[in-house]
Write a structure and sequence with these properties.
The chain is of the alpha/beta class. The chain has 2 domains: 79 residues, ATPase, nucleotide binding domain (Nucleotidyltransferase, domain 5), CATH 3.30.420; 127 residues, 2-Layer Sandwich (Nucleotidyltransferase, domain 5), CATH 3.30.420.40. The protein has 7 helices and 13 strands. The strands form 3 sheets. It has a 6-stranded mixed beta sheet with strand order 3-2-1-4-5-13, sandwiched between helices. Strand 8 and strand 9 form a beta hairpin. The protein is globular, with a radius of gyration of 19 Å. The two termini are 23 Å apart.
Length: 245
């Protein structure tokens, strides 16, 4: 069995694969592991490999590495960005500067579809990556996610305060400050995503914690995948290093 972990800025997701089937899965706040709490994993017999995609920093990697050695007696294999994996080439001039979560998502999408795609990961930040039908990654865009956009208004103004950070089910004009903020922030992201999908005549793929909030607002056809970063860890040819504590 294989343990796969996606350590994001806000949450850590994990699953245990038996072959290609997820037999256990879960998530918890990244801050809990950063503070030294263990990842809440089941007692799994026969766990032979642990793989990690992390944008959460060295402390999280070190804490997870230590836990896995103590709990399962296995090393943690940490995914890295490389210039090429199979038919997919990285668009960054310095591949190591690309977020590994974005790279895992791009690899997973191309393995699933083999088509030109606009890959959206809607998390704390929203990342958008472009890949051609030949597997050429053309880089992408990073913007604040829904909650960060709303928080920036809350922190940066005296009059624009919202009681609850949220997405919205409609993009019509708001008739209260709360509605104006939530609808305006959502519309900014929707407009960006739709423009890029139209300009590049590519499949639109979405993943991430806020994906299901944004998906109904998109006028174009969009395919949702829950675990693209974890799926990328299974792509043949991904480079790994060993985590250290």
């Amino acid at each position: 069995m294989i343990l796969q972990i996606d350590a994001g800025n806000s949450r850590i997701k994990w699953r245990v694969l038996d072959g290609t089937a997820a037999v256990f899965q879960g998530n918890q706040p990244t801050a809990s592991v950063l503070a030294g709490e263990p990842l809440r994993l089941p007692a799994v017999a026969g766990l032979r490999l642990a793989q990690l995609s992390s944008v959460a920093g060295d402390t999280v990697v070190a804490n997870l590495s230590r836990q896995l050695r103590e709990q399962y007696k296995i090393d943690l294999h940490v995914a890295k960005v490389s210039a090429q994996v199979g038919a997919v080439s990285c668009g960054y001039s310095v591949p190591e500067k690309l977020g590994v979560d974005r790279w895992m998502a791009v690899l997973a999408v191309f393995q699933k579809t083999g088509r030109a795609s606009v890959v959206v990961d809607a998390g704390s930040a929203v990342t958008i990556d472009l890949i051609t039908e030949d597997g050429v990654h053309h880089g992408g865009y990073i913007v604040p996610g829904i909650k960060l956009l709303q928080q920036s208004l809350w922190k940066g103004t005296d009059q624009v305060k919202v009681d609850q950070l949220a997405c919205t089910n409609t993009l019509g004009p708001g008739v209260s400050t709360d509605e104006a903020v939530t609808r305006g922030c959502t519309l900014m992201l929707v407009a960006l995503i739709e423009r890029l999908a139209a300009e590049h005549s590519a499949d639109l793929i979405i993943t991430g914690g806020d994906a299901l909030l944004l998906k109904p607002q998109l006028a174009t056809q969009v395919d949702y995948y829950a675990d693209l970063v974890l799926d990328g860890l299974s792509v043949e040819g991904v480079s790994y290093g060993l985590g250290a504590d």
